[in-house]
């Protein structure tokens, strides 16, 4: 499978995986999650009937996706659902038909299938950009130009490492334009960025792209927080200054030391980040405040500092989250966001699932189409939290542990 | 989507100063009307502008961008922009963006016209 992958087209991933598994007396169907993380859609295999899309909510495969764990089908012996996980990025689920003598509850078989699904997810991830087939399956409707621009700039939604779980989410998926995030984990440092360009649509997306690229290029060249912010300022002014119309981008940039827990940050007009300790609100760091990126002031920029303890969680969000308004005008609110985040922590949900549920709650509160983008970045400084973003637990009848 | 309510009126209150009263929702759909009013005033040579925002119920990022543009434009004409009577929600939003570093904010329209008692302590605490 790996040997034949070099020349593989995007649309050949599922047939090749299927072929390889049938030689082992197994069958497998891959389901990709859609951009909004609501629907699982099967990758077609020529000559086979394409299964109907499956909702994440209330389904067994959905449960496998949400809780990142294998789910044996109680109604069909030998059928096992396993998350499709590349690194810690969730691509969907895989439906296995095990050989006749195999038990789907057997941890050894679950482990084998997790290994195969990991390889398959890696193929999906590496072939994503070589064709449009996989992108099409991830979309239930076309992207706007602004959303197309933004998504191709952004790193995967989830990227955990030994010391931290790191995940992000953005809405509305098919129509984002203005919000964006970035991160980089190297050595003992995790860099985090969450941006929100003024306005909406393509012009906001372009402004966000300019700010994000300026920050990223400066960071990769070894620049510190202040240099990253300065680069964003300069490039925004250069791009949009001559038009005579201010174009600014609010943003939070943080440099998180994974050994000491020290977070150094600059808050250029974003809502205050939320820090949770033992499922309680520890506080909102108010330092490092400055004007939005692209508006230069004569006042010097200060860097704020916040010391985290092992196990702490930090939630960054844009104002589209807390200011999402219901039909009666009531905002979603910071209190509700904190309350829900602490509930998810008590439930020990995987970090990406916490954000998926927070985003769903915001969308439900709003009811209708959003008037602003809503984006969040969640960091959990905890090896256990990082483990929860991997496939597990692998044991029979243990499925209730994370429900 | 129905057009949100916004009204903008202006009155010359001194030899130099014109007060613009904005009421309703200032956002991407309505900001152009305020820009048009400001343009008309600049064409008449009115460059010292006070915005009475006591009845402005909403201001999004596009509205804020407009105030920054107006601030820059009147400065380029040797004029001045002062904003007065911001509602608490709007003021909180301006504070979140540290906008008091570039915009002059006043408690009341009278203060803004006389230039007395600018709200100079809005800044978030330094790091």
UniProtKB/TrEMBL annotation, chain B:
InterPro entries the record matches: Anti-sigma_ant, STAS_dom, STAS_dom_sf
Coiled-coil region(s): none
PROSITE patterns per the UniProt record, alphabetical: STAS
Origin: domain of life: Bacteria
Single GO MF descriptor: anti-sigma factor antagonist activity
Domain named STAS: residues: 7-116
Entry-linked Pfam families: STAS
Cross-referenced NCBIfam families: ant_ant_sig
PANTHER family: ANTI-SIGMA FACTOR ANTAGONIST TM_1081-RELATED, ANTI-SIGMA FACTOR ANTAGONIST TM_1081-RELATED-RELATED
Family: Belongs to the anti-sigma-factor antagonist family.
Protein name: Anti-sigma factor antagonist
């Amino acid at each position: 499978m790996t040997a034949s992958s070099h020349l593989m087209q995007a649309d050949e991933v599922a047939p090749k995986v299927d072929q390889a598994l049938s030689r082992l007396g197994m069958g497998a169907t891959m389901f990709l999650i859609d951009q909004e993380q609501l629907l699982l859609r099967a990758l077609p295999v020529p000559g086979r009937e394409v299964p109907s899309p499956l909702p994440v909510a209330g389904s067994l495969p959905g449960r496998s996706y949400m809780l990142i764990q294998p789910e044996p089908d109680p109604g069909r012996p030998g059928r096992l659902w396993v998350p499709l996980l590349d690194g810690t990025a969730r691509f969907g689920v895989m439906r296995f038909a095990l050989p006749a003598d195999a038990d789907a509850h057997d941890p050894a078989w679950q482990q084998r299938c997790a290994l195969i699904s990991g390889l398959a997810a890696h193929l999906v991830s590496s072939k994503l950009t070589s064709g449009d087939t996989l992108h099409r399956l991830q979309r239930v409707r076309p992207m706007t130009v602004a959303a197309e621009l933004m998504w191709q700039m952004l790193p995967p939604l989830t990227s955990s490492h030994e010391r931290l779980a790191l995940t992000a989410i953005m809405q509305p998926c098919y129509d984002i334009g203005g919000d964006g995030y970035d991160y980089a984990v190297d050595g003992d440092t995790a860099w985090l960025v969450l941006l929100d360009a003024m306005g909406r649509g393509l012009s906001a997306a372009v402004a966000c792209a300019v700010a994000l690229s300026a920050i990223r290029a400066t960071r990769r060249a070894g620049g510190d927080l202040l240099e990253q912010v300065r680069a964003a300022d300069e490039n925004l002014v250069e791009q949009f200054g001559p038009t005579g119309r201010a174009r600014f981008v609010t943003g939070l940039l943080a440099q998180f030391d994974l050994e000491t827990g020290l977070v150094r940050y600059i808050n250029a007009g974003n809502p205050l980040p939320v820090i949770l300790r033992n499922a309680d609100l520890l506080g909102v760091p108010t330092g490092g405040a400055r004007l939005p990126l692209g508006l230069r002031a004569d006042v010097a920029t200060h860097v704020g500092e916040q010391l985290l303890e092992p196990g702490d969680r930090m939630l960054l969000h844009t104002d589209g989250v807390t200011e999402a308004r219901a039909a009666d005008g009531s905002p979603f609110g910071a209190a509700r966001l904190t309350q829900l985040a602490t509930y998810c922590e008590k439930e020990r949900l995987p970090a990406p699932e916490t954000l998926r549920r927070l985003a769903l709650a915001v969308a439900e509160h709003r009811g209708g189409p959003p008037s602003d983008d809503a984006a969040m970045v969640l960091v959990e400084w905890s090896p256990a939290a990082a483990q929860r973003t991997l496939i597990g637990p692998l044991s029979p009848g243990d499925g209730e542990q994370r429900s | 989507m129905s057009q949100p309510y916004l009204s903008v009126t202006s009155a010359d209150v001194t030899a130099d100063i014109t007060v613009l009263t904005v009421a309703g929702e200032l956002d991407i759909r309505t900001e152009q009307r305020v820009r048009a009013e400001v343009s008309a005033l600049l064409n008449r040579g009115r460059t010292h502008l006070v915005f009475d925002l006591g009845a402005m119920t909403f201001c999004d990022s596009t509205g804020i961008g407009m105030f920054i543009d107006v601030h820059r434009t009147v400065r380029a004409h040797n004029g001045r922009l002062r904003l007065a009577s911001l509602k608490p929600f709007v003021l909180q939003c301006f504070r979140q963006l540290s906008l008091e570093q570039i915009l002059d904010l006043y408690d009341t329209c009278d203060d803004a016209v006389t230039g007395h008692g600018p709200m100079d302590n809005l800044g978030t605490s330094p790091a």
